[in-house]
């Protein structure tokens, strides 16, 4: 078995997660930030394959309910216990991907799922930690910063907040909470495949209620179908309907209006993908050599000391204004 190696911290961001999923060979899905779980918002995102919830971890605040026992019908669930520091986001993503048969996992992740099917939860966690594919894609988002050991939490050992990711998704007619720090999957009760997010909302609200009113550090993302694929299918459907109509049919005006609206949404989605790609590229780039060269050049031209003096003076004036 390969060495588990080190796992870097990655930013909680839909663009990061979408590129991470694509890097593992999965097709046709993306991550979306969720600001509300109301019916209207969820309708716009359908199909939603699963939710990933970020919260501040506290000792004793584990599962929403007691994990169901293996003999309670969990054999059909991919559940892995977390054995890797810094990888709870990737593990929460895998909890959704590997439990949704309607997602195209690609050959490598499909083989991984088949290979680990009969493993115990702790062995599945070890298998994730030793997967070259999953680890290399995860670590591709390591910060390129020579002043920080990217493979370790810089706050390790300090009295700092620790954040954790868990997944919610429907599996065989029941809503499950999958938390790698728990002993097993938590069955939250029967659910309707079309309205399971309503029940997930209740579970998330219950978890948030455990914290004080001042705690605002929560985040929610949805794994959805690729929006570009959805929009393209809608355009194809409109085009097919228009082909069956005569040129002077009054319905054409409405179809054209619908088509323009979908094309607008598609353009916005493409612009968002371009922005995500640029942000991910910047995340991975090491700017230290450029900064060093800039400072070196300013020093050679005798321009650095005046800039430092000016910055110090501005800082003093700001501090004086606050007093």
Provide a descriptive summary of the structure in words:
Helix 1 (14-23) packs across helix 9 (251-284) and helix 8 packs antiparallel against helix 9 (251-284). This protein has helices at 14-23, 39-45, 88-97, 106-115, 121-129, 132-139, 196-208, 227-243, 251-284, 288-300, 304-322; strands spanning 29-33, 48-56, 163-171, 174-178, 186-190, 219-225. Helices cover 46% and strands 12% of the residues. Strands 1-6-2-3-4-5 form a six-stranded antiparallel sheet, with helices on both faces. The chain is an alpha+beta fold. The protein folds into two domains: 14-225, Peptidase C12, ubiquitin carboxyl-terminal hydrolase (Ubiquitin C-terminal Hydrolase UCH-l3); 227-284. Mean pLDDT is 85; it is low at 149-158. The termini are far apart. One of its GO terms (molecular function) is deNEDDylase activity. The active site is at residues 88, 164. It catalyses: Thiol-dependent hydrolysis of ester, thioester, amide, peptide and isopeptide bonds formed by the C-terminal Gly of ubiquitin (a 76-residue protein attached to proteins as an intracellular targeting signal).
**Euclidean distance between termini CA atoms:** 61 Å
- CATH hierarchy class name of the largest domain: Alpha Beta
What gross morphology would you assign? globular
Instruction: Please give the radius of gyration in angstroms.
Output: 24 Å
Spans of 5+ residues with little confidence (pLDDT < 50)?
149-158
Percentage of residues in DSSP E strands? 5-15%
CATH fold naming of the largest domain: Ubiquitin C-terminal Hydrolase UCH-l3
The count of helical stretches stands at 11
Give the class from helix and strand content and strand pairing.
alpha+beta
Biggest sheet character: 6 strands, antiparallel
Helix coverage percent: 40-55%
Order of helices and strands: HEHEHHHHEEEHEHHHH
Average pLDDT:
85
In order across it, which strands form the biggest sheet? 1-6-2-3-4-5
Number of structural domains: 2
CATH superfamily label of the largest domain: Peptidase C12, ubiquitin carboxyl-terminal hydrolase
Count of DSSP strands = 6
The CATH level-2 architecture of the largest domain is identified as: 3-Layer(aba) Sandwich
């Amino acid at each position: 078995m390969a060495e588990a190696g080190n796992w870097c911290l990655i930013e909680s961001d839909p663009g990061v997660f979408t590129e991470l999923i694509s890097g593992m060979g999965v097709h046709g899905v993306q991550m979306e930030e969720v600001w509300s779980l109301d019916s209207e918002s969820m309708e716009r995102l359908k199909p939603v394959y699963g939710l990933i919830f970020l919260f501040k971890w506290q000792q004793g605040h584990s599962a929403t309910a007691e994990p169901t026992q293996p003999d309670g019908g969990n054999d059909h669930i991919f559940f892995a216990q977390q054995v890797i520091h810094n990888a709870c986001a990737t593990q929460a993503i895998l909890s959704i991907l590997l439990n949704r048969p309607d997602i195209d996992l690609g050959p490598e992740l499909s083989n991984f799922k088949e290979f680990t099917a009969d493993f115990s939860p702790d062995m599945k966690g070890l298998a994730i930690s030793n997967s070259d594919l999953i680890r290399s894609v995860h670590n591709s988002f390591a910060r390129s910063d020579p002043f920080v050991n990217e493979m370790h939490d810089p706050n390790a050992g300090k009295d700092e907040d620790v954040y954790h990711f868990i997944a919610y998704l429907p599996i065989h007619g029941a809503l499950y909470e999958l938390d790698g720090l728990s002993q097993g999957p938590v069955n939250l009760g029967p659910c309707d495949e079309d309205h399971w997010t309503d029940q997930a909302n209740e579970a998330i609200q219950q978890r948030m209620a455990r914290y004080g009113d001042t705690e605002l550090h929560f985040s929610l993302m949805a794994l959805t179908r690729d929006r570009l694929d959805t929009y393209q299918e809608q355009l194809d459907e409109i085009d097919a309907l228009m082909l069956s109509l005569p040129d002077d049919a009054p319905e054409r005006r409405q179809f054209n209006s619908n088509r323009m609206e979908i094309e607008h949404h598609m353009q916005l989605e493409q612009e968002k993908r371009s922005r995500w790609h640029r942000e991910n590229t910047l995340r991975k780039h090491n700017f230290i050599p450029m900064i060093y060269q800039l400072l070196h050049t300013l020093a050679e031209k005798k321009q650095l000391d005046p800039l430092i003096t000016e910055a110090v003076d501005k800082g003093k004036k700001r501090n004086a204004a606050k007093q």
